[in-house]
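Researcher: We're teaching a course module on how sequence relates to structure. For the next exercise, students receive a sequence and then see the predicted structure as tokens, so they can try to spot secondary structure elements on their own. Here is the exercise chain.
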Amino acid sequence: MSALEQIRQRPGLVISILGIALLLFILTAIDNPGELFSDNHTVAKVDGQKIDYIEFQRRVEQQSEQMRNQGYTNIDNARIQTMVLQQMVNETLLKQEYEALGLVVTDNELSKAMIGETPHPMVTRMIQQWGFPSAQMLYEYAFNPQKYGLQPEQSQQLQQAWAALEKDTEQMLLSQKFSALFSGALPANKLDAKAYYDDNASTATIAYARKDYNTLSDDDFKPSDADIEAVYNEEKNRFRIDEAQYIIDYITVDIVPSKTDLDAAAADVNKALAGLRMTPGTEALADNSKFYVNRVSAPKSKLSSSLRNALDKITADTVAQVSFYDYKYTLAKLLGVTENVDSVLLDMAVFAEGAAADSVLNALNTGKRPADLGEKLIAQSQDSVWVSLVDPNLALVKDDIQNAEAGTYFTSKNNPGVAMKIRTRKAPVPVYEIAEITYEVIPSSATISKLNGDFSKFLEANNTPEKFAAEAAKVGYNVMEGLVTPSTLSINQIPESRNAAKWTITNKKGDVSGIFKNDNDSRLMGVAIKDVFKGDYIPSSYSRVRTYLEDKARNRMKGQKLIADYKGKATDLNGYAAAMRVTVDTTQVTFGQPMVRNFPPFESALNANVAVAKKGQLVGPVALNSSAIVFQVLNIDNQGRPFDFQNDAMVFTQREGAGALQNSISAILLGNKKVDNRIQKFYSDQQ
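Model: And here is the predicted structure for the students to work with:
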């Protein structure tokens, strides 16, 4: 049989051979064939659904930009990334639920919300923030640019804004539909409302005698392993975990000036003060880059608080040290004092584009108000605005305002698009010309070298968690405990501690790190991994869990002991108080409220026993979480309020029903779904 005939009879074999050959060709043709099978663009998965890195990073950058615009300067990227990813996880959970419920927003609903007769308030608010009177106007500008003489790049930006608004509006409408559906699925029925009423309508006043467990020595009560495990099994869900937990000790060492550095800086400052007193202006510092000079010109009311508080000292001695705080000296030298008008009350009107300034100015000065001239001549106006002539932002128009007559509109040569009218000027005030001089003490190279060397030696010598913790205090280091998980981008939210967190999740119990530094080399950090939990629960052997369980088991033993000691020892409350060697006290208990005056929160056994006790009945001894108690109900106040279904159903919904559950909607939707948070590994792969 010929080779061609064999191929014809076995087409499956041919396809397989060609497929393998093609794959081998691709693998040999690219630089990194492993990338074909990796998932380098998924920062997390929510129940299998991917969150894409590109969109995640875009939103991180957007959030960072917003914070910068709001004036934040020390932005911790790790915190922003954590926040943004959690938002995207929550959005994914909601999207999955919308799809499962079949919730959609129709084109008609979206159109009505955006450009209908009564647009949604959110849309109106957003549009007005962008400077458009309506969404319809934004749409016209975006998609009919020729009509309004817009450039292509301008219309493209507006189209992007419109698309973003559409998306946001759709999500808002979906959220409203879901909220309505969620609330409608959990209405308070008569039983719910009546239960809430019964729990909160009655308040019992009780007299009680209480013996606290802390009056008994812990040494006399040693819970067994079985006792501890019994508590653990009862409260096991308290210790459930969704991802691996790394329990660490860590040390941070701030890189700060040493005493030698501070002494040298003090000498520099004293020399500078002497030089400033002997020479004009700030000539003494002309060649000294350690000192930064900022010239301030302001009346006393507008000086910084530090300069204002030290003004008497500055004017008396001309040169003074104002402060030394956070390793930074502030000095001041008085350069002069003048008398100037500080505050002026203005009316202002901004000319519309294309308006003839002279004719508009003439109209204003012949009695017309800005509002009378219309939008074609006056774009916007404002009356009675106080401005300060010592404000640097007004430097270009200061002279024109100073020289203008009150009561007449005028323009400044440096700002011809704004008409101004002076209503009144305040009387001249002293304006202080001050050289504000700062000197920041920085650690010397010798100091930095010593801090690094000492810490490095410590980490090398104490290379187990036990030594790490035991030896730290002896050499002046402070040990803190922390928790790191694969989704953690920092240690205890310390800025720029991502590398230490990365190291932690890639190492094992018992390991001790080297030195980690932050971006500006102002902090050193070392980490010791004490424990690692990778199951579904933190084990009962973990020290903090063990301590909690032991305390609870011990208190149970104490409660049993006190009940056995005092049961039947008296026939009235005073008798029990005498036996317990305590005094009788009173308080009020409402079953539906977890707080009881004079008791720790969440003493549920107290609420439960009081709720079923009859007036005058002596109850106890009863073991609570932290004490044993005998009590008697003195009075039950029903508050005289009848059951009101509408009111009690509303309050039940707010506190225990759909209203309260809305705050936990993300956790509810998550349920047993798994979130595969890859953010640490992802950044390790990318960097």
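Model: If you want an answer key for the exercise: The longest strand covers residues 328-340. Residues 279 and 285 are 10 Å apart (CA to CA).
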